[in-house]
Amino acid sequence: MNMNRRNFLRTTALATAGSSLAFAFGRGRFGFLPDETIKLSDLAAVSPQLEASFQQLLQWLSTNGWTNYLSKELGIDLSLQGDALKAELIKELDSEKLQAIRSKEGSGYDDFSGSRLVQPGFPAFSLLYHTLASPRVRASEFAAYPELKQIDILENYIHALYAFSKLKSDYDIASDKDLVLAVFAYEYRPAFKTPHHQHADIVYSRTGIARIGTEPINYDAINRCFTNNPADAAKTKLVAVTPARYGVFIAKKVRSNRVDLMKADTSKPGDPYNDAKDGEKWFLQPVRKLFNDDLLTNGSKIDFTELHRSEKIYKLHVTKKLPITGGLIPPVLDSAYLLMQDESRNAGSSFLVISIPRPLIRHALKDGQPLYFKVNKGTEDTRYFNSLNTQAVEDVELLQLNPQTKNGTYWHSVNYYDAPRKQPLFLNITHQKSGQSYTQLKREMNGSFDKKINAGAYDSPLFEDSICDGQVSVNTAGIDFAKLGTISKLCLPAFSIVTAPDFFPQVDCFDMLAYDIAPGRNKKDTNFYEGGTASLATLRMRPNPRVLDTKDPTYTAVLSKQSKKIPGISKEKLDTFQNPSVDKGYFVSGFLPDVSSSIFAPGWDITYSGTKDNIYLATEGLGSPFTEDMKLCAAMNGMWPAASPDAARTYQGGLEPEYRNTTAVPLMDDEIGLHADSPGGAGEHSYGWDGEQGPYIEKINGKWKVNFTDLARADVVQNTLDATLDMSKLRELTSKELISRMDCLRACIQKLPKKNFESKEKLAKMTGFTYHWLVSAEKANWGNEDVKAAGIPENLAGSKDWISNKMNAKVNGPGYLFVFIDTSKDDLDHRDWADYKRRRLTIDNLYVCQVTEKGIAWKEMMRGSKKDWQF
């Protein structure tokens, strides 16, 4: 069938879209920070309003223990006044004391690269800014941590102290024609999350990623970020909206070698839409922030504007002529309906795009009337696991043998973007109109559900969500340009994406590069049969022209200014700044494209639309509602591991027999849900992150079976409506934890007997190709603690003591208890249903693994169950 993800189209790549930046630029050089002493006479004047705000900040620092801490550690006196205070701020710090605090375990200063309390014009090299803005700086002496508005005040103050003429010299700006005003999403990050990994730095992008939620925004001051964990502890299973922060900057157009770009090292020559050709492109480098009460603009107020649109349901009507009951035309949802419009979006002189807290999905309305559409009779091409498929598209990112090599290397296929998603690719059809509302289609084991779905001829409700895209700009009419020379009064807007919740806010795509084969990478193993770790930051595709009129393909680039070495830092310490397996000691969620997934089929955060010859980034092609595609993507093994959970373990038996994606990023039993009839019993009964429950082993009529949720019968849309999604299951998982799980999964697949998607021996150790089904997984501390073994039946091999008792451990230390099975071929005509949505398959082989990152012991339990442990 056309929707089969294995049948992708191979056609010629498109030509790169041109840039629309129509102004001239000079040579482009970033002359770095001057080393000479800064004199008071070098400082620019600060407005009385900003000076007053800064004094209030100093008072807060004193009240909350920060002033005493800095005095004790660095001999700094922030109680001074007037010029004496300014002299204290800009003096060179005592090198021995600075080195001491950098070396102090847990201080959070080891990735600070400056030498002054304030480096005028450069917040990232100002120790006071690092102290307030870095999530790694924390101490028992601090009674409170700063709010975003306070960090914004300090940021503005540091920019204000440096004369604009000096900045022009530092950046080698020969003419005002070299400059432009532009809006950027930006955040201050520890070294680990910067493009260069050398030191903490401010990181910028012309695209921001906000996320929807059911609860109001929650700023986590100690971690200096917004969190999707609701402030109300009783609502931790729900999800808070998370905003993206924007500021307006004077910026310079530069080549890629003048900035540090977040690079994937995963590009394939010939694909014009990845970062392989960045050397041929122009990028905007922020030079100087503009803010309220800025003397550079004679105190002008920064007036941010935004425009957002949600067109998913509307495009179903326009593109597919979807028959809407009553002839109603679905509305285009606008900013007033989608985003907060009050003062909460003003964070000092920066701007927040904040989704209005609402149910994640809800019945779509037009002028108060609920919207329904007529479901037509189904064909092979129009149904995809009981979702309506609205478009035949090529498959993307499937793992395949590299035909250009002879040594058995692999890559993920390249998406040539020949089938833009013009409307939601998947549409939920598991509900029907009932009186004045709707109800789920009747679920029975006799097949009436599937027959009803395929027969169609019923009215199904349209569901909406708040996913949208748009722009953030600044109204420059109110800005005084007298001191800005001949800089263009045109402000280039930022692209704004408001998308689905991030189930893994502590994990980024770049953290998992070693576990994927992206196009062009010469590697022989991957955890991902489908999808992969591609980040939106490496995609070079222009934004939606209906919200942002530009042909510039660099909007999603993530960059920082060129790095500055930290004096005296060791290579070992620098190595930790780019090692995702190191405990970070803090939780941070970001809102730039490098923490967002790229576009697949159709996508998680955003997808692409338009025509074959004119494509662009947009949200209109995402599933409707987003949880409909969430179920399918998750079942395909977490195609975007930094955002989309991996539910392959839950649904593996419900996929096509020759196409049963194994898990890529293993989730534990309690994270995907334990059934009351599982070996763990009612005491372990729980629901997973998606409101569903995972597989379990049982004995039926003398045969061992796996009991699992069928993908076509699961209804995550209903689970979302019932608010049974549980965000608390996954939000605190770190890269270190997930990498450990993937390492241990690889170790098991390489050791166990081989039963794969492909019979070729050269695929035998490919984690992404294995046929083994990880049916149970739990954390363990082998040899030190007993394990529950909740996934192992008591009667599998007598008492569970052989595996649960810590004295019987065959490996030692933190790790996992993994149980793998192989099943008999699925008889699609005579399915063994356990209830209306769960069914059974016969188990052919069963393997129990004790595994740590350092070792593995495994045992075959069915054929030759008396065999000793193998290592």
Short note summarizing the structure:
This protein has 871 residues and is of the alpha+beta class.
Radius of gyration, in Å, reads 28 Å
Portion of residues within helices: 10-25%
- Mean pLDDT, rounded to whole units? 89
Total helical elements:
17
Record field, number of beta strands? 38
How would you portray this structure in words?
- With 871 residues, the chain is α+β, with helices and mostly antiparallel strands.
- It is 16% helix and 22% strand.
- It contains 17 helices and 38 strands.
- The strands form eleven sheets. Strands 1, 2, 6, 7, 8, 11, 12, 27 and 29 form a nine-stranded mixed β-sheet that branches. Strands 32, 33, 34, 35, 36, 37 and 38 form a seven-stranded antiparallel β-sheet that branches. Strands 3-28-26-9-10 form a five-stranded mixed β-sheet.
List the helices and strands and how they pair.
Layout: H1 48-63, H2 66-74, H3 82-90, H4 95-103, H5 127-133, H6 148-160, H7 164-170, E1 179-189, E2 201-205, E3 207-211, E4 218-220, E5 225-227, E6 244-255, E7 259-261, E8 282-290, E9 304-310, H8 312-320, E10 333-334, H9 335-338, E11 346-347, E12 350-353, E13 362-363, E14 365-366, E15 369-370, E16 372-375, E17 383-384, E18 387-389, E19 399-401, E20 410-412, E21 426-428, E22 431-434, E23 437-440, H10 448-455, E24 458-461, E25 463-464, E26 468-474, E27 491-492, E28 494-499, E29 558-561, H11 571-576, E30 607-611, E31 614-618, H12 626-635, H13 648-651, H14 669-672, E32 696-700, E33 703-709, H15 716-721, H16 735-751, E34 773-782, H17 801-804, E35 813-823, E36 832-833, E37 838-852, E38 856-860
Parallel strand pairs: 1-27, 3-28
Antiparallel strand pairs: 1-2, 1-6, 2-29, 4-5, 6-8, 6-12, 7-29, 9-10, 9-26, 11-12, 13-25, 14-15, 16-24, 17-18, 18-21, 19-20, 22-23, 26-28, 30-31, 32-33, 33-37, 34-35, 35-37, 36-37, 37-38
Helix pairs in contact: 1-6
